[in-house]
Amino acid sequence: MQITQHQLDLVNDRIRALVEAGSFYGKKLKEAGITHIEKPEDFTKLPFSEKKDLRDAYPLGLMTAPEEEIVRIHSSSGTTGTPVIIPYTAKDVDDWGEMFKRCYEVAGITNKDRIQITPGYGLWTAGIGFQNGCEKLGAMAVPMGPGNTDKQLEMMQALKTTVLCSTSSYALLLAEEIEKRGIKENIHLKKGVIGSERWSDKMRQHIADSLGIELYDIYGLTEIYGPGIGINCEYNEGMHYWDDYLYLEVIDPKTGEPVPDGEMGEIVITTLVKEGAPLIRYRTHDLSRIIPGKCKCGRCYPRIGTIMGRTDDMMKIKGVNVFPNQIEEVLANFNEINSEYQIRISHLDGKDTMRIYVESTGDVDFASLSKRIAEKVKSKIGFTPIVKVVEVGVLPRSTKKTARVIDERFD
Ligand code: ZN
Q: How far is the CA of 293 from the centre of ligand 1 (A)?
């Protein structure tokens, strides 16, 4: 989808601010000799920005507005090295809240709802993002933060919360606890807004059925405000995103060239009005596609498909590119297993091996089930994995993100 002239005018404004502030991207542009883009078709001449650039700018090298206008910072988790720090102006915080409010509205949530927020607060953008949007909407926030399942369930019952905001793993954990404790009649949830993790259709269906709620996927990343930049509507055909705040492209992750609408690739985001830390052509490493055409709901906002994984999740096993999502699709066809799984890749006797662990939901012959799953996986990806069926509850659950792919080849 080509950038519009109006969006381009906004980008040129941001470019001016970046060059004036002398921040990393401003310098990059100066070096490239590009400080203005005349025509929409020239937009792709702008260089990309990468997570590494953001790390190199640590601590405050991204700051593009004057310090007296910065009201807050957020930081992405630094599990893989230096964290990234994103400064926000009051307008950025407000814009983010507006986008988030729009997400809640698209999900049919109103100011009469009570929203239980279980993602973490603090340096993260998660909890506070859900909260800002909730307060802008005028709904009642129940700011729980993560963990403490007893307290979560107690508040959920006492306050009759109607909306659950969480990761998919935590929603699953809560659903299982509610069932186990036999307290389903006391739960008044109607909707779930689920963020920050990729999940399979099967897991989604399982959570929706066991809690009896409608689920919405919210999209976002710390570098670009946080969660709340897109959500699916009632037709559930991809996520609408807010093109008055952001311009999205999808590129081939290898060549960097844009791919036609509808084709899978890496999402690249440009912020149109962000002041504290504008980003131009930021490579998210999230894999998805632009969904062509207008949505049945009639909303004018464009759509992207479900996030299919990360460009860096792509596993190269026995020379074949494999995405976790391909395995999930196969597993979803087996009723004898639930939605939990774990993939372990190792290198033994000079050969790559892939082991897939799944949880059986009932009394089945583990050996024959393993064999049938292995055959189906082979027909999808071209080689035979080792499939291990385990009892329900054996695979790890977590309140945050569950690691489903473990590559032991480089340990
Ligand atoms: Zn729609």
A: 11
**Other CB atoms closer than 10 Å to residue 42's CB: what's the count?**
13
**146 class by beta-carbon count within 10 Å (0-12 exposed, 13-18 middle, 19+ buried):** buried
DSSP 350: T
Closest by alpha carbon to 140, among 99, 111, 175? 111
**pLDDT tens, 271-295?**
999 999 999 999 999 989 999 999 9
CATH architecture for the domain at 314-410: 2-Layer Sandwich (3.30)
Tokens of 391: 């009892």
Location of each CATH 3.30.300.30 domain in the chain? 314-410
* Cα separation, 341 vs 360, whole angstroms: 10
Distance 165 CA to ligand 1 centre (A): 20
Sequence ranges of the chain with CATH classification 3.40.50.12780:
89-312
Distance between Cα 291 and ligand 1 center (Å): 11
Contact 266, 281 (CB under 8 A): no
Ligand 1 centroid–CA 144 distance in Å is 30
Nearest partner of 217 among 187, 237, 189, 190, judged by Cα: 237
Question: Is 48 strand, coil or helix?
Answer: coil
Secondary structure of residue 250 in the 3-state scheme:
strand
pLDDT tens, position by position, 350-396: 888 999 999 998 888 999 999 999 999 999 888 999 999 999 989 98
